Amino acid sequence: MRLIFIGPPGSGKGTQAKRLAARYAVPHISTGDMLREAIADDTALGRQAAPIMASGGLVPDDLMIGIINDRLRKPDAGPGFILDGFPRTTVQAEKLDTIVGNGSDPLRVLQLLVPDDVLVKRTVLRRSCPECGAIYHLESAPPKTDMVCDRDGAALIHRPDDNEESVRKRLEAFHRQTLPVATYYKAKHILREVDGVGPLDVVFERIEKSLA
Ligand code: AP5
């Protein structure tokens, strides 16, 4: 399974990619998570990315391509991967073609479709676990105990870029810079569109059906 998830902020890429990765036993590679880890570790990359992410902009292509090139060369990505958040520009998509080449499994691309007004509500009410990465939503997927991760008991966090102003800027970046990536893959006939509105299990079923 070599799959790319495309979707606007809050469309459910992370939520569904984690499930699919478990189902197909391949790594879930989220560039957003990798950048947040770099920020938490206070690396040079993290210091450069932090203000860009907080404002809702995109981290420069050359940095992102370097990160993904290194990550995809790790042995666990040999049998396959689920990419979440990359590529986000056509420059990144073109470069990814040269990185992954023609593997034994075809590259597939899945675009989650969710209207903008739903996305703002989803992101502003999202909470996540800093330890295991579990994703919650205060209304649609709340933790059993208020603000505590069901799996490991860690205190949940609210991402600094999950405020309405930053989400609107991320949406603008998605429309301007990432939708052309969907067009790029549509022209190659490898893009599937999936309705991302509905209960989590129903969306997962749609995804599995579209991949069958
Ligand atoms: P990233 O972390 O990738 O953020 P994003 O694309 O904005 O996506 P999100 O993580 O916000 O949402 P998601 O689609 O994963 O939704 P989730 O499953 O959590 O990137 C962050 C930043 O890093 C970027 O803005 C950029 O600055 C930088 N960056 C990253 N990659 C880059 C790249 N390649 N190039 C340049 N810069 C890069 O779900 C959201 C919420 O909705 C959750 O609360 C969830 O519980 C809930 N939910 C999910 N599905 C449903 C459903 N069906 N019904 C109801 N609620 C649902």
Quick rundown:
The protein is α/β, with parallel strands linked by helices. The protein has eight helices and seven strands; from the N terminus they run E-H-E-H-H-H-E-H-E-H-E-E-H-E-H. Helix 2 (31-40) packs across helix 3.
Summarize the main sheet.
5 strands, parallel
Tally of DSSP helical segments: 8
How many beta-strand segments?
Answer: 7
Would you list the SSEs in sequence order as H and E?
Answer: EHEHHHEHEHEEHEH
> Within the largest sheet, what's the order of strands?
2-3-1-4-7
Strand content: 5-15%
**Structural class per helix/strand content?**
alpha/beta
Distance between the termini: 11 Å
Mean pLDDT across the residues is 93
Named once each, the bound ligands are: BIS(adenosine)-5'-pentaphosphate
User: Radius of gyration in whole Å, from Cα?
Assistant: 16 Å
Helix percentage range: 40-55%
Uncertain runs are: none
Shape: globular
Structure report:
α2 crosses α3 (44-55). This protein is α/β, with parallel strands linked by helices and 212 residues long. The strands form 2 sheets. The chain has a 5-stranded parallel beta sheet with strand order 2-3-1-4-7, with helices on both faces. The chain contains 8 helices and 7 strands, in the order βαβαααβαβαββαβα. The structure holds BIS(adenosine)-5'-pentaphosphate. BIS(adenosine)-5'-pentaphosphate binds next to α1, α2, α3, α6 and β6.
Keywords:
48% helix; 7 strands; alpha/beta; two-stranded antiparallel sheet; binds BIS(adenosine)-5'-pentaphosphate; 212 residues; 8 helices; five-stranded parallel sheet
